[in-house]
Every structure is written in structure tokens, then in C-alpha cells.
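Dear U.,

For the methods section draft, I wanted the exact inputs and outputs in one place so we can describe them consistently. I've listed the two proteins in the order they'll appear in the manuscript figures. Please don't edit the C-alpha cell lines directly; just add comments below if something needs changing.

First protein:
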Amino acid sequence: MLLREIAHARAGDKGDVSNIALIAYNPADYALLARLVTAQRVKQHFAGIVTGAVLRYELPALGALNFVLHGALGGGVTRSLALDAHGKSLGSALLAMALEDPR
């Protein structure tokens, strides 16, 4: 199962930091997201792209996880030569993560 089957994402940026909100479509799937989508797993998923720490914040009342990816944007919008210097595509890339289907 791909992450996009149970969640959607929104991404933002500030300097060289990307912020990805991962939101369960169904609140009942939040526990599954919290168990399977760890900061370490996100860091591994973005190996070669994210050079700094990945922090995870839990928002159970919203059925969401928020990931802060440091060193994710090649120095930031004004310094990066990346095609997506804002990191908007990182949200979509996260949704391509394969998850073990517990059903």
C-alpha cells in the first residue's frame, strides 16, 4: 500500500527547511500513520535529498503528523539551483512511500 492511499500532504518552506504535513483521510487511520511513518523512516525515504535532521510532531486531534526536514532545499530558495527550490514536490514524494498493509 502506498501512503497516498490513506493520507494527503501539504508542504511549505522557510530557508533550507521543508515542512510537510501528512493528514489522514480517515481519522481512524491516524494510529497507523503514527506507527509506520516515523522521522527515521522519512529521513531514509529522502536519503540524498535531506542532509539534516528530520523532526516529527504529532497532531492527533487533526489526524495529522508534521515533519520538519532540515537541509532539504539545497540552501533555500534564493541559493538553490533545484527545479523545486520551494520543496512543494517533497509532499508528493512522501506520499509515494510504501507501507506495510496491516489489513
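Second protein (the one for the lower panel):
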Amino acid sequence: MLHNYFVYIMTNEYRTTLYIGITNNIQRRIAQHYFDSQNAKKSFAGKYNCIYLVYYEGFEKPNEAIAREKVLKNWRREKKNKLITEFNPKWETLNSQII
């Protein structure tokens, strides 16, 4: 199954801040977050150094990804933590593992 859209969660070094986003090119988006964290710090992810990918889901259609992003953003932190832990138990950085 080909996934053209991704909902993803980025965090900072200490795993204290979460950023949830959607993209059609996850590697490019990770690079943008990193660049912003090192330079302008204009975005939320850049300002809080959310440069570590810890969770992602793939979707075929953009409206499915947008709907899922909205759901996740409305969750309490505890529920987001549980989702990440079930997907990535050690909260390892997945930046280089995603294609």
C-alpha cells in the first residue's frame, strides 16, 4: 500500500514538547523542522526544537490524514504519550528510519 501523506509527531531532546503535523514528504518536513530550529525559529517546532520524529502514520488520501491530525491534536498529552509508546516503546528517534 502506497502512502502519500503522513501524520507525524516530532519532539525535542528531552521529550517534553510534542508537535503534530501532516506532510506529503516526511523527510523534507523533518529537514525543514531541523533548519528552523537551527536558524529562524519561526515555527512552533523550530522554537521548541522539535526535531526528533517519534511517531508517524501513512495515508493514501490527504483528507484522511487531515482528519487524523485533528483527532490527535485534540487528545490529552497522556493519550498521545500512550500512542507513541505503543508505536515506539523507547521513543527512539526515527528520522533516519523513514523512507
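Candidate sentences for the figure legend, describing the second protein: The CA atoms of residues 60 and 87 lie 20 Å apart. The chain is about 40% helix and 20% strand.

Thanks,
Y.
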